[in-house]
Amino acid sequence: MAKLETVFDANNIEPSTSYDVLQPGDYPAHIIQSEMRSTKDGMGQYLWIEMEITDGPGRGRRLFDRLNLINRNEKAVEIANRALSSICRAVGVLQTDDSEDLHHKEMLVKVAVRPAGLDKNGVMRDAQNEIKGYKPLGGSASLASAPVAASAAAPKTPPWKRA
Description:
This protein is mainly beta. It is built from 1 helix and 8 strands; from the N terminus they run E-E-E-H-E-E-E-E-E. It starts with 24 loop residues before the first strand and ends in an 18-residue tail after the last strand.
């Protein structure tokens, strides 16, 4: 049992609501926070990004991405650099040494749904949203995306089997 310091009155406070996953699609959003964080093994760093949807369905909802910019896995670093390049191009900041330069600039964020199921560690997870790419808000440019968007002309061989 825990004794509260005051009388809590739920009549005066709106209850929290659960958030269902967003439907797949492009959402206008902007970065509101970002910071470099250490990877779990302490051997690398990733850029943690928090975004907010600015309009339409989901307005005010938060989205998150992690870009492994410093990692022993070269493929992870390549994927992260390509995603960061997509963000930079989407917001019109082509050179930066501070992720804060990317804050509060609108872009379209391509959102997908990772279905519920076992993760790579065998832990059951609920369905969740994941970021698949970024593009300018005007939308005339082709989607510059994170690893999932592959060109139709790209080879069908999985990356780990390519020479």
